[in-house]
Design brief:
Helix content: 40-55%
Order of helices and strands: EHEHEHEHEHH
Largest sheet: 5 strands, parallel
CATH class: Alpha Beta
Number of helices: 6
Number of domains: 1
Distance between the termini: 32 Å
Shape: globular
CATH topology: Ribose 5-phosphate Isomerase B, Chain: A
């Protein structure tokens, strides 16, 4: 599984903690920035960089099972988590969720096949953020339950509207 991660200045420190933990766990982590702490940077730039990769990768790995080598997911971080979540959800095939707990993210993976996790650096302790990240990465989508796949089909139809 490839994980793209990006954060602005407010999420910069949390991004470093998460990226190091994930690399230690054996994940392929690609950091799309910020490369340096810059209080003048803008969260849409980093959320866009992650969402573009997941959007393209999500289409290519549509049949992937959670944890497959070909699966692509993303993690975006800003102060509130809201801005990066809004940006990520502008991209086709991206289903981003703002984490409030590991349990909520487990439900989002299981029922909605979320593929981008948005984190609020100003409102989450690193331990809680890591718990949400691990729930995001380890929880499989219930693809064998027709109702969940049907709902994702309806979302895909909305993405194709002009």
């Amino acid at each position: 599984m490839t994980i793209y991660i990006g954060a602005d200045h407010r999420g910069f420190a949390l991004k470093a903690i998460i990226a190091a933990a994930l690399k230690n766990d054996g994940y392929e982590v690609i950091d799309v920035g910020a490369a340096a702490l810059d209080p003048a940077d803008d969260y849409p730039d980093f959320a866009r960089a992650v969402a573009e990769k997941v959007s393209v990768g999500g289409a290519m790995s549509a049949g992937a099972v959670a944890g497959d080598a070909g699966e692509v997911r993303g993690i975006v971080i800003c102060g509130s988590g809201i801005g990066v979540n809004i940006v990520a959800n502008k991209y086709r095939s991206v289903r981003s969720a703002l984490a409030i707990s590991a349990e909520q993210i487990r439900a989002g993976r299981r029922d909605d096949d979320i593929n981008v996790l948005s984190l609020a650096a100003d409102f989450m302790e690193p331990e809680a953020a890591l718990a949400a990240v691990r729930a995001f990465l380890l929880t499989p989508f219930k693809r064998d339950e027709e109702r969940f796949s049907r709902r994702l089909g309806k979302i895909a139809e909305l993405e194709n509207k002009p």
